[in-house]
Design a protein that fits this description.
The structure is a single chain. With 299 residues, the protein is α/β, with parallel strands linked by helices. The chain has two domains: 115 residues, Isopropylmalate Dehydrogenase, CATH 3.40.718; 161 residues, Isopropylmalate Dehydrogenase. Strands 3-2-1-4-11-10-5-6-9-7-8 form an eleven-stranded mixed beta sheet, with helices on both faces. Helix 3 packs across helix 5 and helix 4 packs parallel to helix 5. The longest helix has 26 residues.
Length: 299
């Protein structure tokens, strides 16, 4: 059976002019896949015509008359935007017409809609956003990256269980290491919620290694790094900004003189390999865990 992805074409900062070409690029890489492009039909079809893909049999357009803005509250998106492109892609997953939904839209709204439409697995209060990040030792999985701004100790414990279970399945690790993101490794550091979460983690059956500082994420201290959505999102965006700044600095330095340009040519294979390893676009998709369906948050 062909994989079908429902894409919220109105989500993100640029809407169909970015999401539609992105969907078509995905189809080039995956010839057996199909996409359902959801959004304002005229705009979506206009982008398809520009790309000369309006007759592609693997592309289906689904009209959604509403869209969720980046500034809209989750409650408003859930109650007043029942025909939004974001709501429709999640509904398509629920009905079995798509195997996954992808949106670059409002994170809080996506979490609220997905939780309401798809529901969570038994015993879990909230979905969490998880993504894989490059490290010195390979990669680490980090959650929550923005779905839950305010979290109690029990939520952080649940996130750890969710992340550990996922990594165990994906990476074939029997007992993945779990670290709790904190301002210091000492047990006395952190907010009350973080300190209480650490106690819960120590008492659990998870392979908890203790607190992990920010630099420990990229040193590969733990297979799974757990934090609340506020801290996780700030850390993720700061990391992306740092990577972009570093790349910009390198380009400036190599363009200074004829000699530095020649040096860039010699070093190009190494630089290209380095770029592939740290390019945040390779780690764009973040999954909302423990829903009864697959929802991916892009940005």
């Amino acid at each position: 059976m062909a994989l079908t992805i429902a894409i919220d074409c109105m989500g993100g900062d640029h809407g169909p002019q970015v999401t539609v070409p992105g969907a078509l690029e995905f189809l080039k890489l995956h010839g057996d896949a199909q996409v359902i492009l959801v959004g304002l039909e005229d705009l979506v079809r206009g982008e398809l015509r520009k790309a000369r893909a309006d007759n592609d049999a693997r592309v289906r357009v689904c009209h959604a008359p509403q869209m969720v803005s980046m500034a809209e509250s989750p409650a408003s998106a859930l109650r007043a935007k029942k025909e939004s492109s974001m709501r429709v892609v999640v509904e398509l997953v629920k009905r079995g017409e798509a195997q996954a939904a992808v949106s670059a839209g409002n994170t809080g709204a996506l979490m609220a809609i997905s939780r309401f439409v798809l529901k969570t697995l038994p015993g879990i209060d909230r979905p969490a956003i998880i993504s894989v990040l490059p490290t010195l030792t390979g990669s680490t999985y980090m959650l929550d990256l923005g779905a839950n701004v305010d979290c109690g100790p029990e939520h952080l414990l649940q996130f750890a269980i969710m992340g550990s279970t996922l990594v165990s399945a994906l990476e074939h690790k029997e007992r993945p290491t779990v670290g709790l993101l904190n301002i210091g490794e000492e047990a006395i550091k952190g907010t009350e919620a973080v300190k209480q979460a650490a106690e819960l983690l120590r008492s659990s059956s998870l392979n908890f290694i203790g607190n992990v500082e920010g630099d420990g994420i990229y040193k590969g201290r733990a297979d799974v790094v757990v934090c609340d959505g506020f801290v996780g999102n700030v850390a993720l965006k700061a990391s992306e900004g740092l990577a972009q700044m570093f790349g910009s600095f390198l380009r400036e330095e190599f363009r200074r003189t004829v000699f530095t340009r020649l040096a860039a040519l010699v070093a190009w294979p190494v630089l290209a390999s380095f770029k592939r390893r740290v390019d945040h676009r390779r780690y764009n998709g973040a999954t909302l865990l423990v829903l009864r369906g697959i929802v991916v948050k892009s940005h």
